[in-house]
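Render this sequence as a predicted structure.
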Amino acid sequence: MDAFMPYLILTGGLAAVLGFFTWLASRIRRRGLAGGAMSAALASYEEAFRITAHVSHVEITAQAERRAPLLSPDDHWGRSPGETGGAGAEGRPPLRPRPRRSRRSLARLVGRLRGGR
């Protein structure tokens, strides 16, 4: 038994360290603290060792910060007369089947009203 004691201590210490890191990771994810820090750390690593990855990161960041252009109030808001875009020949949208209503929900409502809830 004395020969296994160092291995047992090593295994217990490793399990404690892995358990601590698992707990720490779940806590950081729950609070949302890792977003900016991890992004910055990975960006600096990629800048140092992978030049093309850093260029891609800069492009993606620029795209995320870019805003969509706003429509001008002077523009035509409706569709153009020649454009159908899924509408029928008369300009009406195509007919779609109506979703079927569940009878169970009606019975549940009646049961709640009778039960006094």
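Summary. The radius of gyration is 31 Å. The chain has a mean pLDDT of 76.
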